[in-house]
Specification:
The complex is a heterodimer of chains A (230) and B (323). Chain A has 230 residues and is an alpha/beta fold. In chain A, strands 3-2-4-5 form a four-stranded parallel beta sheet. Chain A is built from eight helices and nine strands. In chain A, helix 1 crosses helix 3. The longest helix of chain A is centred in the first third of the chain and has 17 residues. Chain A folds into two domains: 119 residues, 3-Layer(aba) Sandwich (Rossmann fold), CATH 3.40.50; 61 residues, no CATH class. Chain B is of the alpha/beta class. Helix content of chain B is 40%, strand content 15%. In chain B, helix 2 packs across helix 3 and helix 10 runs antiparallel to helix 11. The N terminus and C terminus of chain B are likely disordered. The chains are: A alpha/beta (230), B alpha/beta (323). At the A-B interface, helix 8 of A face helix 5 and helix 6 of B. Bound molecules: iron/sulfur cluster (2 copies).
Chain lengths: 230, 323
């Protein structure tokens, strides 16, 4: 899932300060699971905005509403007849980066600001603890690396084994971080595939990743008419 | 791999001739001061076969290794240009290889590079378009096949003597050796090791290296760090991947004259390393203490260094133990 973190509250307050009617819109999918952009967090942020406005002697209307997924037009459409959005001068979106942008596309004349910092595609490993697992590189190599991603989990995105800084299974950048190549090695050993390590993985074609410019995916098998993705 | 052209790497010729190589290191300054590099080069001239020029080591911005390498070259010290994968994508790396070649700089040491979080620009973007094995493969392609990574042809193949690094103390050893094997397959002709303090461990590693035949496909050059102070040794111990046994730390701690002891430790190590089968040379790292290199080269019996312009008397230099 997409993991996100609430922005520093002062930064949020600064962004919404110029407006007298603010709608805080929660998102019910990834960011709700990562406890950053769900309804509970939206209510909390709304009350902080109100408190700050009161302290400054300003009169601000702050409402809270929520959709299941802000990155999905079908769900966003549900906002159309809600008074919260209708009356809002500024929408503070608690979606991930995709959600915020889709919101801005949907309401071209409204001020849309982000309440979260979208961090990574990752997993939850315990209460309040998430780690990055994938960078969406567009050319997955997990079959070669025992199911452990060298692109996102090695600090240097190495494809041919560990750097010289790997020590005691830890990454050179941080004694708390696992060396991805140690994990890959341990796992390949367990599944009897250490011969995979002998292959020289050639330089990558990063066009599949962000480096080829923003990516677009058009699938002919599910496309209707001459949809070019626009 | 014998080379006869006048512009060929002297370092390579020393290794080709089977003589025990002796190299050192020049750390470029955190400024554009050419004299700083020239001075360091002058202090090494005649005492070494070549000197590594570090590439923004520990991710601290310094004069470019190619520029500093050229300054050393003009002072008569052949540079080994270090090139990390941290800061440049394949376009910049290949371009710099052409540049180094054009300037007559023939030796390149390819490495991953310390992560930028160690240095003075932790907020910078981390490139790693290619890793060190992929870059070695690119150098091999440009030199042997006359091809750029992208597949287009070079008018003239580059004349570069490529090397790689290895850490004999890193674990798991099996994985580290697999990786070293890949570096050699990707074209590394020489291998410089991490600084050695624990000779027993290194001996053990060399045995594994010999069993795999790596020493026959690339020249293995043992790294020796020279410490001037107890503090410097303690700092060295903190470098990722370094392994300093308590006995060496104690020896420095107990010494009255730390500088003498630092040199003594290095000399003892070199004495041992010279006799290990498959070790083709030593690489002395005395960053910030270039003058120590002269003393060590003298006391370790490394002088005079071979010169391929003169007729050489056979047997004047310590031979590489090879079988
Ligand atoms: S290899 Fe690419 S797609 Fe696969 S997990 Fe890693 S970043 Fe994601
Ligand atoms: S220590 Fe391991 S995870 Fe960290 S950069 Fe090196 S290879 Fe990658």
């Amino acid at each position: 899932m997409i993991v996100a973190e609430r922005k520093n509250i002062d930064e949020i307050l600064r962004m919404v300060e110029p407006y007298s009617n603010v709608a805080v819109v929660a998102c019910g999918t990834c960011v709700a699971v990562s406890m950053a952009g769900g309804e509970a967090q939206a209510l909390e942020i709304a009350s902080l905005i109100r408190k700050k406005a009161r302290a400054g002697g300003r009169d601000v209307e702050v409402t809270v509403t929520s959709v299941i997924r802000q990155c999905d037009m079908e769900f966003l459409d549900a906002l159309d007849d809600r008074a919260e959005i209708y009356g809002a001068e500024c929408v503070l979106s608690l979606g991930c980066g995709a959600g915020v942008q889709f919101m801005a596309e949907k309401y071209p004349y409204k001020i849309i600001v982000p309440g979260l910092d979208t961090t990574f595609i990752g997993v939850n490993r315990g209460l309040g603890f998430w780690t990055e697992m994938c960078q969406g590189c567009g050319d997955c190599v997990l079959e070669k690396t025992g199911g452990i991603c060298p692109v996102s989990r090695c600090a240097k995105s190495h494809f041919n084994g560990p750097c010289g800084g790997s020590s005691g299974g830890r990454c050179e950048i941080n004694a708390d971080a696992d060396c991805a190549w140690q994990l890959i090695y341990d796992r390949l050993k367990r599944i009897n595939q250490t011969d995979r390590l002998l292959e020289i993985n050639p330089a990558r074609d990063w066009r599949a990743s962000r480096d080829g410019g923003p990516r677009k995916l058009v699938r002919a098998d599910v496309t209707v008419g001459d949809n070019d993705g626009e | 791999m014998t080379v006869s052209s006048a512009a060929a790497s002297n370092f390579r010729r020393v290794l080709d001739s089977g003589r025990f190589s002796f190299t050192a290191e020049i750390g470029p300054p955190m400024s554009g001061d050419a004299e700083n590099v020239r001075k360091k080069a002058r202090s090494l001239k005649g005492f070494v076969d070549a000197a590594n020029i570090t590439d923004n080591q520990t991710a601290i911005v310094r004069m470019s290794s190619i520029a500093a390498g050229y300054l050393a070259y003009t002072e008569g010290v052949e540079p080994i240009i270090q090139m990390t994968c941290r800061d440049r994508n394949r376009i910049a790396l290949q371009s710099d290889l052409l540049g180094a070649c054009a300037l007559g700089l023939r030796n390149v040491l390819i490495l991953s590079g310390d992560h930028q979080s160690f240095g003075n620009h932790p907020a910078s973007k981390n490139v790693y378009d290619v890793d060190s094995i992929q870059l070695l493969d690119a150098v091999r392609g440009m030199a042997d096949d006359g091809l750029f990574m992208g597949g287009s042809r070079l008018k003239t193949p580059i004349d570069i003597f490529p090397g790689a690094t290895a850490n004999p103390f890193a674990d798991p050893r099996e994985l580290q050796l697999i990786r070293l094997g890949k570096k050699i397959r990707a074209g590394a002709k020489f291998v410089q090791t991490q600084g050695i303090y624990d000779i027993a461990k290194f001996r053990d590693w060399m045995e594994a290296v010999r069993a795999l035949g790596f020493h026959e496909r690339a020249r293995i050059i043992a790294g020796v760090v020279v410490n001037k102070t107890q503090k410097s040794m303690e700092m060295t111990a903190l470098v990722p991947g370094m392994d300093i046994p308590e006995s060496a730390l104690r020896r420095m701690r107990d010494a009255k004259n730390k500088e003498e002891e630092g040199i003594g430790i290095a000399l003892d190590l070199i004495g041992e390393l010279k006799n290990i089968e498959g070790v083709a040379g030593v690489h002395v790292m005395a960053i910030g203490w270039e003058s120590a290199v002269k003393t060590i080269s003298e006391l370790a019996g490394m002088l005079p260094r071979p010169s391929f312009d003169e007729k050489l008397e056979e047997g004047s230099w310590p031979e590489t133990k090879q079988t």
